[in-house]
Amino acid sequence: MPKKKLGMMLSTPPADKNSAMVVSLANAAILEGIETYLYLIDDGVYNIGSPEMNALEDAGVRLFACAYGAQQRGIPTNSDRQTIFAGLVTLSDMIKGCDRFITFN
Q1: Half-sphere exposure (CA, 13 Å, Cβ side) for 102?
Q2: What is the mean pLDDT of residues 89-95?
Q3: Alpha-carbon gap, residue 61 to 83, rounded angstroms
Q4: pTM to 2 decimals?
Q5: Which of 70, 81, 91, 95 fits 75 for a cystine, CB–CB 3.0-4.6 Å?
Q6: Rounded distance between C-alpha atoms, residue 29 and residue 90, angstroms
Q7: 46: which DSSP letter?
Q8: 51-59 vs 17-31: helix axis angle to the nearest 10?
Q9: How far apart are the first and last CA of the chain?
Q10: What is the pLDDT of residues 15-71, one digit of tens each?
């Protein structure tokens, strides 16, 4: 039986309560053995490189970020982390490929 897949999109900055919710939900999903994907868009790209996002990556969350959003906010897209900078086609594929998809705006 294939693993379940959870996708999430976060569009708010680190100080917003949604960021903490995404981290908690992602950690719970990983503990349950669910493949977890996170796409950072708009002000969500400010979460890139935060200790919480780094820990999620280390735990196995596949982290994607909007390349255009990062560029517009002056966030470098060349990172030594595993974050993949991509466009909306990647987000669309993620939505289509996951069993559940949740947005946090």
Answers
A1: 13
A2: 96
A3: 10
A4: 0.94
A5: 70
A6: 21
A7: G
A8: 20
A9: 33
A10: 999 999 999 999 999 999 999 999 999 999 999 999 999 999 999 999 999 999 999
Q: Which residues contact 66 (CB under 8 A, 6 or more apart)?
A: 39, 40, 41, 42, 44, 45, 85, 86, 87, 88, 91
Instruction: Rounding to the nearest 10 degrees, give the CA dihedral for residues 43, 49, 51, 57.
Output: 100
Label residues 58-94 b or e (16+ Cβ within 10 Å = b). eeebbbbbbbbbbeeeebeeeeeeebebbeeebbeeb
Joined together, the tokens standing for residue 55 give: 């820990």
Per-position b or e across 39-48, b if 16+ CB within 10 A of its CB: bbbbbbbbbb
